[in-house]
Specification:
The structure is a single chain. The chain has about 220 residues and is mainly α. The chain has 2 domains: about 170 residues, no CATH class; about 45 residues, no CATH class. About 60% of the residues lie in helices and about 10% in strands. It has 11 helices and 3 strands; from the N terminus they run ααααααααααβαββ. The protein has a 3-stranded mixed sheet, with no helix packed on it. Helix 4 packs across helix 7. The protein is elongated, with a radius of gyration of 25 Å.
């Protein structure tokens, strides 16, 4: 009897080691790439609407989390956005989803595919869903504009330290420098005005773009 108990205990230890090993493999960069490739294959085979509905469970938990499985969910949603942006059939299928009919006040916009796929994946219920969509949008929109491939999204999230930090880092501002005379002209404008200008734009650094105005002239009125 004692021998049998020892054997059962040993089997449990071995099983736990295997489970831990599998978790390590899944969370490794190679494991993430394989899982990401499988997820994107499913996206292409299932279609956008089915894939988005399949990501809903747990997707809101990614805001303050760098979990690789959850980051893959968001990458699939992002990938769906890339698809519907260029594929009219998938876009029409997205717009025909029952969720939009059930929530007629929220409408997908053809000019904003990323927000549309985020909304369908996250859901429509309450302020929490609205906030989650907004935060994910702010984090992902710069990458979407640059057309970063979907399979790079998990690594971008992890490198940034999570979606929330990515959102904070995505904030952009412009600092304008020039002579006091030119700055007085800029600050003194009280309605839209046209100028001819010589400007220097410096590379983005820390979310800040620096612009220096060298010359500023109002065009002559003919």
């Amino acid at each position: 009897m004692a021998h049998k108990k020892h054997w059962i205990k040993q089997k449990r230890v071995e099983r736990n080691k295997v489970d831990a090993h599998n978790e390590d493999e899944a969370s490794s960069p190679i494991g993430t790439r394989m899982a990401m490739a499988q997820a994107l294959e499913q996206l292409n085979s299932q279609g956008v609407v089915a894939a988005l509905r399949g990501q809903k469970q747990g997707i809101s938990d990614l805001l303050h989390n760098t979990d690789r499985a959850l980051s893959i969910k968001l990458a699939v949603v992002y990938g769906a956005g890339l698809i519907v942006e260029r594929d009219d059939d998938e876009w029409h299928a997205l717009c025909a989803a029952q969720e939009w009919i059930d929530h007629p006040k929220v409408k997908p916009k053809r000019t904003d595919p990323l927000r549309a796929v985020l909304r369908l994946a996250v859901g429509f219920e309450g302020k929490k869903a609205d906030s989650t969509v907004h935060r994910y949008y702010r984090a992902l929109h710069p990458l979407f504009t640059e057309k970063v491939p979907a399979d790079e999204i998990p690594s971008r999230i992890i490198e940034a330290g999570g979606v929330e930090k990515m959102r904070q880092n995505s904030a952009r501002s412009i600092v304008v420098n020039s002579t006091p005379e030119i700055m007085r002209t800029v600050y003194g404008v009280n309605k839209a005005a046209h100028f001819r200008a010589w400007i220097t734009v410096y590379p983005l650094e820390g979310g800040v773009a620096k612009v220096t105005i060298g010359k500023l002239k109002q065009p002559k009125i003919k």
